[in-house]
Amino acid sequence: MTASAPVVVQLEAAGRSFGGTPALVAVDLTIRTGERLAVLGPSGAGKSTLLALLNGGLQPSHGTVSLFGEATAGLPARTRRRLQRRVGTISQGLDLIEQVRVLHNVNAGRIAEWGTARSLAALAWPRTDERAGAALESVGLDWAIHERTERLSGGERQRVAIARLLVQRPELVLADEPVASLDPTRAAEVLTLLGRVSSDTGTLVVTLHQPQLARDHCTRAIGLRAGRLVFDTPIAELGADQLDQLYARG
Amino acid sequence: MPDVRDTYRLPADSDRPEPPNLDAQRRTRPRVTGRQVTTRRLIGALVLVVPLVWALGRALPVGHDIVNRGGARLIGDLLGQALSPRLDGDFLRLVLEATGTTLAFAAIGTAGALVIGLLGGLVLSDVAWTHRPPRTVRAVRVVLRGLLVATRSIHELVWALLLVSVLGLDPLVAVLAIALPFGAQTAQVFGDTFDGLPTSALHSLRNAGATTMPAVAFALLPPASPLMLSYAFYRFECAVRSTVLLGAVGVGGLGQELVVSLSSRNWDEVWTLIAAVIIVSALVDAWSGRLRADMAVASCSEWSAGAAPEPPGGVAPRRSRSRWARWSALAIIPGLVAAWLASGVSLSGLTSSRTRALTGGLVEDLLPPKLPAGGWSVVGDAVLDTLAMAVVAMAIAVLITVVIAPWAVTTRAQGGAPGSLPARIARRMAWALARIGLLVLRSVPPTVWAVIALLALFPGILPGALALGVYTGGVLGRLVAESWESVSPVPRNALLRSGVPGALATLAAVVPASAHQLLTYTLYRFEICVRETAVVGIVGAAGLGRLLSENLNLFRFPVVSTLLIASFAVSVSSELLSRRLRRAIRA
Question: Which family does it belong to (chain B) (predicted)?
Answer without folding.
Answer: Belongs to the binding-protein-dependent transport system permease family.
